[in-house]
Amino acid sequence: PGVIGAALGAWVISELSSFASYANALQPIISVYTAFLGILIIRKALVKRIVKKPIRQIGLLAWTGGFLDSIGGGGWGPIVNSTLIASGRHPRYTIGSVNLAEFFISFASSVVFALYVGLGNYGLVILGLVLGGSIAAPIAAHLSQRLPVKTMMVLVGIVVIIVSLRKISLFI
Fold it and tell me: Read out DSSP for 97-150?
């Protein structure tokens, strides 16, 4: 569902250039949602026991995350990671599996964008993103093995809140 949502979002944003203004308008709404999830993550980290709630519509979550990632320039990680961690999923498992899936989400978006818009001068940008991801992924994996779960949840919550507030402040 995430790959389908990402491909559909990339197609929509490629075909409807006027849709870009709507995508920009969605960013502060998504940022408010993710800031709230960041607060929930920190709260759950500080509570002694986390009760895992079932995710009933995980396909819808994946589709929405993929779609918003394509039309808004980011959304898969913040929306899917934050929602799953806030619902009680283990942070290490969640971060690893969501980041693995993000490769396929990004690949689907990139292929659709390349087919409909073309690559143009974006070759260097793509190369930079690949190199940056290749450097950051092992560092993130190492840190997630070494940090205690509670510390990692608090750090994830703080990062989610900071990024969300920054996006909100840029919109205002």
Answer: HHHHHHHHHHHHHHHHHHHHT--TTTHHHHHHHHHHHHHHHHHHHHHHHHS-HH
